[in-house]
Amino acid sequence: MDRATFACSTAFFRDYNSSSQGAFCGGHVDFIEKVESFTYSDFFRDYLIPNHPCIFSAKFTEDWGSRRNWVTWDGKPDFDHLLQKFGEAVVPVANCDVKEYNSNPKEQLPFKEYVNYWKEYIKNGYRSSRGCLYLKDWHLSRAFPEQDVYTTPVYFSSDWLNEYWDAVAVDDYRFVYMGPKGSWTPFHADVFRSYSWSANICGRKKWLLYPAGQEEYLKDRHGNLPFDVTVPNLQDRSVYPRYDQSQPPVEIVQEAGEIVFIPSGWHHQVYNLEDTISINHNWVNGCNVAIMWCFLQDELAAVQREINEWKDPMDDWHLQCQLIMKSCTGIDYKEFYNFLKVIAENRISVLENGLDDEASAKNTPKAAISTLGMLHAVFDLKRAVKVLTSLSANEDFKKLDLTSLSPPPEALLHHLKAAIDTALL
């Protein structure tokens, strides 16, 4: 990447807000062909900020170890190699033929058992009494960090979600998916309304995408989203009264090696058209952290409505609402504060102290910040300040016991603003 060009990009001198996200018109999705002619600043300007999808060609993944080693000469999953490397692992597997609430039920299976099932499934004409099983949300990178699987493209390297969860060593949002032809993922939007990127190691996928906001027209009369947006009963106005107002989905057929970028808050449904393996990340950064914050406020409001009748007799009602929200979404307001704090302090450290040679040689958050440039760090801090200011003023946040937060919100905001002012001198 040309860092000098990126650092001078006018994108970082604008004060972007949610109104800058232009509506996505029509079904055309840009295809990015050449690695050498597409910079991070191009991606930032044309796709991250406007929240538009795009597809990266297979040239962007051709040097990945998984593309070389996990695939047979004719483009199929190399089961023998995968068993050799991961045969003793235990993996999460969903049954695509069963609906449980608005998703598929999952179980944990030995990887070698799943591969044996997959082989038999193919041999039996893609049929099995066990149903269509799909290996989903496998934290392979966390379980096998020594394996040469892939390198995160620079376009997706400003990744606050994984930067934070790596720091607290609790979780991550890097996944491997493997499944036979016909396996699929029901209609959904990604965790925290994050961005996602998905790279096919082998096989082909079909995506049905709805721009953010379109999902409102797909809700039934009770306000529930459909499990499957292809079923005929969506056209029944007595059940889905606003379906006629929805746009047709944006359709993408993703080929082997290609990467699909899914914008923040876009609902989607995905089918494997062939036996397919993919690498997937969910990620948040300065461009969509405000969307994450809005989502958390909506989630808390929904919890509060559900247990409103218990508000008066329950002394710790606000705390209970936070606990329920965290059990459903994976985060509460106090952890969201700590999330923003970790992200901000990493950037302040680089701005104030620079990057030592040892850190720059490693795959660390500080190395990624340095690669993207100091103005990117300032942009991140400005976005963090906006959301922290809103969080600090939020009445539900102020009703919590904040004494455990260190530093206190006011002190952190002061430090962030001072770091921004110093960096821009």
UniProtKB/TrEMBL annotation:
KW Iron (keyword) present: yes
Residue ranges occupied by any JmjC domain in the UniProt entry: 141-300
Domain of life: Eukaryota
Catalytic activity, as annotated: L-lysyl-[protein] + 2-oxoglutarate + O2 = 4-hydroxy-L-lysyl-[protein] + succinate + CO2
Cofactors, names only: Fe(2+)
Gene Ontology biological process terms in this record: positive regulation of translational termination
GO terms assigned for molecular function: 2-oxoglutarate-dependent dioxygenase activity; catalytic activity, acting on a protein; metal ion binding; sequence-specific DNA binding
Entry annotated with the keyword Transferase: no
Entry keyword set: Iron, Metal-binding, Oxidoreductase
PROSITE patterns for the chain: JMJC (PS51184)
InterPro entries recorded: Cupin_8, JmjC_dom, JMJD6_ArgDemeth/LysHydrox
GO CC terms: cytoplasm; nucleus
Pfam families found in the cross-reference section: Cupin_8
Family statement drawn from the similarity comment of this UniProt entry: Belongs to the JMJD6 family.
Identification of the protein by name: 2-oxoglutarate and iron-dependent oxygenase JMJD4
Species per Swiss-Prot/TrEMBL record: Caloenas nicobarica (Nicobar pigeon)
Gene: Jmjd4
